[in-house]
Every structure is written in C-alpha cells, then in structure tokens.
C-alpha cells in the first residue's frame, strides 16, 4: 500500500481568499457571518450567512464559476498531469434556477457540468463528482486516498465547492434547521446552523509522484471510513451509530489508537441533534481529547466543508494550535475549545469528521506533514 501524501492545498472562504488569511482570521476569533444582502431573507428564519463578497456573473450565469476562478487561479503548487479529477458539491450552480432559462443553460446548474468545466480549466482528466450531502468532500478525499494507496492512480486532484444560494437557504429554513443568529457549535444554547460558501482544492499523491514534481508532504491521509445510519431522511442516529462505524473503519486502516489523536475537528454544525450525536459518538473513543468546530467562523459550506476543514486541520497540526470553537460560549462538555490552545509537544494525528442528510458519515485520520509542514 502506498502512502497518501497531501502535497498541496488551497481554500477560499468568506473569511479569507486563501488558507493563510482564513487561518489568521480564525486565530483572531473572527467570524464571516453577517446579514445576507445577496437575496431577500424576509420570509426565512435566518437573515445571516457567510458569503464571499463581489462574486461576479453575467445575467444568466451562476456565481459558482466566479468562485471557482478565484479558487483555482494562481495555485501555489503544480498539478501532476497524470492526475485524475474528483469534485464534490451538493448543489453546484443551483443559483441560476431562480431564472427562466433554456435547457442548455439549466445544464450549467448540474454537478457534471462543473466537473467538466474544472477539468477544462485545469487541463486535468475529469473522473467523478461525489454528491453525498455535507460529507461530500470528506468522502471524495477518502475515495482519492483509497485509489492512491492501492496504486490505481498516482495522483488525485480534489476540488470541492458550494454556494450560499436562496434555494438552499429556503430549504434549510423550511426544515427549521437555521439559527436566527450566528451559529453556536456545541453551545448549550445552540439553535441551528448558519450557511456559508467556499471551495478547496487538494492534491493527493504517492511519495514518488510528489518528489517528481518537487512537492513536499504537507500531511498524510492515514485512515478513512464511510458509513450510513440507515435511520432517518434528515435526522442523525441519536447515538451516532453510523459515525462510530466510520471512525472505527478509519482507525482500522490507520493502525493507530484513539489515544494517538491530538485533536478532533468535528462537523459541529450548531444544530441540537447533530452536535449531540457527534458527542455521543466520540464518547466511544475519547475522554479528554480537545474538540473544535470552525463553522462559527466560516459557516456551513455544505459539500465543500470536508475539504476546507481538512486543509485547516493540517494548519492546526503544523501550527501546534487547536483553534477556538468560534460562537461557543457555554460548551456542552469541557473538551470543546473556547480559546486557542497551544500544544507543547509535537501533535501527530487529528481526526476529521463530517455527516449529512440521508444518514451519511465520513471520518478521516490525518498525520502531520514532514517536519510539521
């Protein structure tokens, strides 16, 4: 089995145009959540979200392609031409469906169109889009890691993305899943989630291919697991049975123990049921391991969440800092971080989890890069 290096990554969030600015703002405990001006929120529970300013479009185009152009232009690392392309999104260019458009134009709202567009932009062979609710990009990383580890491909480029659109905002509002104010992950008084938007690109390779292109190991995907609760269409299993299974699978592949995990970057949406489910699941493995969520800073970026949050987890490992759970003032358990925590030793492993509608769960175990990079 090959090692699976993460040899490059970049992100775009409402909190910053790249990984550096986003991370710096997180350490300053800033939040990008604000009043929504993109569409009329009069009839919705929540009037706030985390969205990227000044995305541009023509009358009949989605904002998505402006977001993707910002994300993918001027990448700080080369892309191996032998790579295959995986994308992850829940709704792609769904924002254009608010207009009366031709069938050809409507096709631009679909994930397969975005997959093809990105393939052309990067000049990389499109392979597959994964749409698995809010665990989409976490599963894409698991899929890519599996392909590289088995030697089926040398490199996988994963691009994940989703927009803050009225269509999605209205849907979550109708489910009464939105918080009236900025979300409070793992807070005793949490009321729901806050939507965000953004994207990430990650390059997964074997060590030989990385070295061929002069790339360093920024982190390693050492374990992964995917499962389904088979419990309810939108609600998670109350005891986190599916998430427990996904984490067990990840530990089995990683061949490490729960005591080796330095930090847990949870899904942490701020809904009553999701946060409770995750804490129930974590009880099966951990006692005092610090837990954090960053959705109070960048919002819930849906299909992009896993990819963005994996990049930020690698920054946390490299920086030896566990960030505060922004928005959380009264944590449900003491392991939830409310302030930045500096780790005195060298943290080696982190657990990243994401879950979504339909009972989907995904878990990744990440190892810090060479020399902490």
TrEMBL record:
<dbReference type="GO" id="GO:0006633">
    <property type="term" value="P:fatty acid biosynthetic process"/>
</dbReference>
<dbReference type="Pfam" id="PF02801">
    <property type="entry name" value="Ketoacyl-synt_C"/>
</dbReference>
<dbReference type="InterPro" id="IPR014031">
    <property type="entry name" value="Ketoacyl_synth_C"/>
</dbReference>
<dbReference type="InterPro" id="IPR016039">
    <property type="entry name" value="Thiolase-like"/>
</dbReference>
<dbReference type="InterPro" id="IPR020841">
    <property type="entry name" value="PKS_Beta-ketoAc_synthase_dom"/>
</dbReference>
<dbReference type="InterPro" id="IPR014030">
    <property type="entry name" value="Ketoacyl_synth_N"/>
</dbReference>
<dbReference type="GO" id="GO:0004315">
    <property type="term" value="F:3-oxoacyl-[acyl-carrier-protein] synthase activity"/>
</dbReference>
<protein>
    <submittedName>
        <fullName>3-oxoacyl-[acyl-carrier-protein] synthase II</fullName>
    </submittedName>
</protein>
<dbReference type="Pfam" id="PF00109">
    <property type="entry name" value="ketoacyl-synt"/>
</dbReference>
<feature type="domain" description="Ketosynthase family 3 (KS3)">
    <location>
        <begin position="1"/>
        <end position="368"/>
    </location>
</feature>
<comment type="similarity">
    <text>Belongs to the thiolase-like superfamily. Beta-ketoacyl-ACP synthases family.</text>
</comment>
<dbReference type="InterPro" id="IPR000794">
    <property type="entry name" value="Beta-ketoacyl_synthase"/>
</dbReference>
<keyword id="KW-0808">Transferase</keyword>
